[in-house]
Amino acid sequence: MNPRAVPPCLAAAIVFTIVLGGGAGAGCPACGKVPITDIYAAFLLADVTWFEAEQTMFVFYRVQAEQGIGDRTRIELGYRTDDEVVPFTPLPQITPVHGHVEVDCGVNARCGSWSLHVPIVPRDVRLQMRYHDEGELVLPASTTLNVVDAGAAAHKNRSLAVYGVFDESNTRVQWRARHLFPALRNEEVTALGLRRHVEVRDMRFGPYLADAFDDVDNPYGYGDPAALVHHQTQLTELGWQPVATDERAVFSAESMPVMAEASQAALVAGIATVTDATPTGTFDAVALARKNPEVAPAFPVLHSPITNNVVLPFFLEQCNVEDLNELHTRTQRQRLLTPDDAPVICVDDFTDDGFVDDLAQQFRSAIDDKRLEGDDMVLVFALHHYDQTGALAATVQQALALVLPAEAQKSSPRCTGALVYDSYGERIVDPAVARLTLWCPANLGNDLDQIDDASMRSCPLLPDMPDIRLGPFRFNSLPILPTRAQLLTFVDRYSEAQAGRVLSLGFKAPQRSTTSRDVPVGEYGVATFFNEETLTVPAAQSLSFCQPSDPDAAADVGVVVFQGLGPDVDPAVHALPELPAYHRDNPGVDVALGILWDFPFLTRLRYESSLAGAATALDITIPFGVDSQTTSFLGAATWEASDFSIGDALLRCARFCEHPTFDSAGVYQVLQPFDAVYLDLCYRPLFPTPGDGGFPSDP
């Protein structure tokens, strides 16, 4: 039953029944017994706050009733002070101090706010809802009263703070009012209809005021006494027109002047005037607007030219062996696409004292001759022999040790490394040679059909299509780069025709400048710092890293590394995400940016297998340091582009880094300065713009 729809006698009966629990109202003899219907009404909010400094009491309420609340329902306030007792009075009959707009809370609810002048502390404050302005039925609220004393610093104990923010360009200022209530949030107060009139005048610009923002109780610096003195004595007038608003935000119409002093200024200060119920009727205080951190990509693109390397072919063999296996010789030449006129070097006398030096000199001479053409090179040769002790392979590796490490440190044109196709599977003992040489094949037994996919491999062949099968053969059972024994076993079981052939063999490597340098990383990796790409970040600046979500961008960022520069700096190589924290811990230290390579050059071959007259080709990478065929290998993508985009992954704050800024939701995070918060957080601010409304997101 809705009390607002019944005659007065019935309403009286309802009140009587509720209060006394009787059936028929003695004060309404014409009325009979009536049923009592619960309309499930309740106050969800009944909050009252009194501010001593403003002599103002604020009322906020929210009430709901399941069967609805009509137009003639009233919210009433009663209270007492040491000087007077104010009986329950409908809020609209009390002269408000501030503006209040009607709030639509739906047909089943009533909510809103009110403000009134109360010069001294109120006591016994009560709210109630009268269902009908001519009826007696009321719903009392359990009212919460908060008392905010003026305190020593009045600007810290007021119901409203005024501050400014800049737009993205740091040239336009938006002045904002922020409600400050003990139990209600800023936007909740706005939603309940409270509107405050704010004016800002006498805007001036100048340097940062650290003291004004060091007080955690006043993070906006509103009304700071030192800031007010600074405003009057040390800041430069802007000449902007005053602005006013009854909402919560308004932009100044003017922009910062184009001049060095204004661009370098960290803030704009103005005098904000708000209304209250004190004898003066207004309150003046300084309002501060801090510029946003000036943030941009720290090093947008790292350029590293990747070039095709030319092949320096040789064929090393034991020339005096009578039982020469022509099938194996033919296969080694075919797999490496060794031309007929490639130099043949006899290695029968590999135990002689001068053999290592002579072999190294032949390699050097070929490199020097080819260097004149201006291309980077790779030594590519087969080692055809019958020495199963490993002594010959070790001797050849000694010769490579005299050539390759020195070449790797030269600027282009240079020899980037070597690919050796041995008759047996051997390992490289010298780590300096292992970084620069692919020594194939892997010796895993004589029968390719018995090789496990997960077996350790010193020369892993990784196809672009994993888990490939060509007819009856698994990929790892194909005689692509087999030992002599593996080849003979395969041909005996199947045929030479099914052994397939290599269609192409190519090499790529980064081009080195005269200032390039390599730093070993791990067992095989090399960090190359190409052309003095140096990031200089002064101590006052800050860095921020954000892991890209785009796979291509993440791949680029994943290979970029840095190294601190200076005689007293640890030369260790670090991943790019570590750079912001490194700069924080080592302020002012310059860093070199480079690329981390899994191997010194990329080897790619195209192989064709024939089965029953049908040919199938597949593309294969031969990487360094991959233990098995099933190992995930993504390094080849690094070699497909010359530019590595760092872009928005690494940001640098050049100025105003100690200032707070906006988050991605457009909320001004006043307690989160850029330099302390965004080291490893993605910085995606949403700035205010003129015309986006007077009620910004400001919880």
How would you describe this protein?
The protein has 699 residues and is of the alpha+beta class. Helix content is 16%, strand content 34%. The protein is built from 13 helices and 42 strands. Strands 21, 22, 23, 24, 25, 26, 29, 37 and 38 form a 9-stranded mixed sheet that branches. Strands 10, 11, 13, 14, 15, 16, 17 and 18 form an 8-stranded mixed sheet that branches. Strand 7 and strand 8 (138-140) form a beta hairpin. The radius of gyration is 41 Å and the shape is elongated. The two termini are 40 Å apart. The model is unreliable at 1-37, 451-456 and 627-634 (pLDDT under 50).
Helix content: 10-25%
Strand residue content: 25-35%
SS-based class: alpha+beta
Termini separation: 40 Å
Radius of gyration in whole Å, from Cα? 41 Å
Question: What's this, in brief?
Answer:
This protein is of the alpha+beta class and 699 residues long. It has 13 helices and 42 strands.
